[in-house]
Inverse folding.
């Protein structure tokens, strides 16, 4: 089975501090990582490979894709990676990313299964998976929490607002997953070492055959500001007894706990 | 600016979505709904010029095709649905086919010249972005934020039936009900929340005891309901669970991962009890107690009881 996993490099929101005056994020000081749900997609792809043979290809695109993060994905158990790293993707939106990722996936070969996170942790757009499916003429199923292989195709379960939906799907297909589906493995030292030999193929954006319109973002981001919730950040110290006493009197004083 | 097309698989969301686009200034509003004619009467009052009905069973892929077909004949400026898991997928597929922008999970929408200006949360709910897309654009809007408003003397809309495109590749098997307790944390005034600092399922009794004493509900982080299944899924607070806004939120043994904190930003006061002074939850709290929960909780509960009987 040929499995393509789409992964995105994002800023880690836990390290993205706002400028105290403008409330804009200070990107220069933030760390980058692979988007959380994409790691769940990767884990699921690797499990499929372990059960049914085949290979897992990591597909990634962005303005400045760090090889170190792609190595992390390879260390988890993917076989090779294809990456488009190009400054022109600086302001890419869901339309542009989907066009690039779909073309890149097609360049690599015909996938039986394309997996990705249901949304990225930075943009939270919930669109790249279904858009890639549309571009490749494939069906898609989002918010998948369980995948079983069947005689023909897959049986998948989705976690929806109104319950758990069960679907039988044929391959090839695009599936998006979230945190619920699995816990991504932490690669062992041995796996990290083995990953250094796996190929990371750098693909030029021009070679994908996309026209100007397909690379023109539809969405423009005008501003990003921290959702500021001021907290008092009072640390209650002292012995257990003193701390309990202080906390209780604060909560009673604020009218939060009635005694 | 021409009209707006509302799309929703579930009829219940139609009134607030219609109201939202009317408030944004759209007069010609049409609705594509996955429903039959019998139940359509009650949405007519919100002001529609045409209703496209798609009856029977269909996949999201074929509903997206219907959105595209309606858009091609009516040429709306805005194509808007509720931000549900199904409709966000439909929005993305339709936008790709129409070669236009897609803005999912918007908090507010506003017409700004030949484009739509929206606000959305990004970076796991920690930042708000103002984004803009030229018409036509496909949008999904968070539900439960717009109070539906009927239009006086609404005219009877034209009804058009749409046949679902058959998609053999995705076949519906069943919808299973998920076991839920009768608890709605989004309405709770006080929440006592359980994190991975709890070592055994039985220990949650401590949190439940505190919740009883303060008159609150018990909530939890994702590992507690997801991986460990110690509590039911409807108690899961965070990015992929419930977004809550109690007046008091007591986080016990909760580390404060971004995914969880996103769900508690609406809380008025946050108390953290965690023995790790470096846990991120302390930065998100009004009151922090750096102590072992197993030692602190019994003392605190005892004090609370004594104070009440005084």
């Amino acid at each position: 089975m040929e499995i393509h996993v789409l992964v995105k490099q994002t800023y880690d929101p836990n390290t993205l501090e706002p400028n105290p005056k403008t409330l804009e994020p200070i990107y220069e000081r933030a760390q980058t990582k692979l988007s959380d749900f994409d790691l769940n997609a990767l884990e699921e792809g690797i499990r499929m490979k372990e059960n049914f043979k085949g290979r897992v290809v990591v597909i990634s695109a962005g303005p400045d894709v760090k090889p170190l993060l792609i190595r992390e994905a390879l260390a988890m158990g993917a076989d090779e990676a294809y990456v488009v790293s190009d400054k022109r993707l600086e302001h890419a939106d869901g339309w542009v990313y989907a066009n690039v990722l779909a073309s890149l996936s097609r360049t690599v070969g015909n996938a039986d299964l394309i997996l990705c996170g249901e949304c990225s942790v930075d943009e939270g757009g919930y669109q790249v998976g279904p858009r890639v499916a549309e571009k490749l003429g494939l069906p898609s199923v989002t918010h998948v929490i369980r995948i079983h292989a069947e005689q023909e195709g897959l049986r998948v379960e989705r976690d929806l607002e109104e319950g758990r939906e069960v679907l039988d799907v044929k391959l090839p297909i695009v599936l998006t997953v979230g945190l619920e589906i699995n816990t991504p493995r932490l690669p062992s030292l041995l796996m990290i070492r083995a990953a250094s030999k796996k190929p990371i193929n750098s693909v030029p954006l021009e070679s994908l055959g996309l026209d100007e319109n397909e690379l023109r973002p539809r969405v423009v981001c005008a501003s990003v500001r921290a959702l500021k919730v001021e907290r008092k950040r009072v640390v209650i110290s002292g012995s257990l007894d003193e701390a309990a006493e202080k906390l209780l009197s604060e909560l009673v004083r604020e009218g939060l706990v009635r005694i | 600016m021409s009209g707006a097309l509302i799309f929703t698989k579930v009829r219940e969301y139609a009134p607030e979505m219609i109201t939202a686009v009317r408030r944004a200034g759209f007069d010609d509003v049409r609705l594509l709904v996955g429903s039959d004619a019998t139940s359509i009467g009650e949405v007519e009052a919100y002001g529609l010029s045409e209703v496209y009905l798609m009856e029977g069973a269909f996949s999201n892929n074929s509903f997206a095709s219907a959105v595209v077909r309606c858009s091609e004949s009516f040429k709306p400026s805005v194509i808007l649905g509720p931000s549900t898991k199904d409709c966000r997928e439909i929005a993305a597929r339709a936008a790709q086919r129409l070669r236009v922008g897609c803005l999912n999970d918007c908090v507010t929408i506003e017409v700004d010249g030949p484009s739509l200006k929206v606000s959305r949360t990004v970076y796991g709910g920690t930042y708000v972005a103002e984004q803009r897309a030229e018409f036509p654009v496909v949008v999904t809007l968070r539900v439960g934020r717009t109070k539906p408003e009927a239009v006086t003397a609404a005219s009877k809309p034209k009804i058009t039936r749409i046949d679902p495109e058959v998609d053999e590749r995705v076949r519906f098997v069943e919808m299973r009900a998920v076991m839920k307790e009768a608890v709605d944390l989004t309405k709770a005034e006080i929440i006592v929340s359980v994190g991975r600092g709890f070592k055994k399922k039985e220990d949650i009794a401590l949190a439940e005891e505190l919740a009883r004493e303060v008159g609150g509900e018990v909530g939890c982080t994702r590992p507690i309901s997801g991986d460990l299944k110690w509590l039911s899924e409807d108690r899961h607070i965070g990015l992929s669970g419930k977004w809550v806004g109690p007046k008091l939120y007591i986080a016990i043994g909760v580390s404060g991962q971004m995914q969880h904190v996103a769900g508690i930003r609406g809380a008025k006061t946050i108390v953290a009890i965690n023995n790790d002074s470096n846990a991120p939850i302390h930065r998100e709290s009004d009151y922090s107690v750096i102590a072992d929960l197993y030692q602190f909780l019994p003392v605190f509960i005892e004090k609370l009881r004594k104070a009440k009987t005084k």
In short: The longest strand of chain B covers residues 101-112. Chain B touches chain A through 87 residues (CB under 8 Å). The CA atoms of residues 16 and 64 of chain B lie 21 Å apart. The two ends of chain B are 67 Å apart (CA to CA).
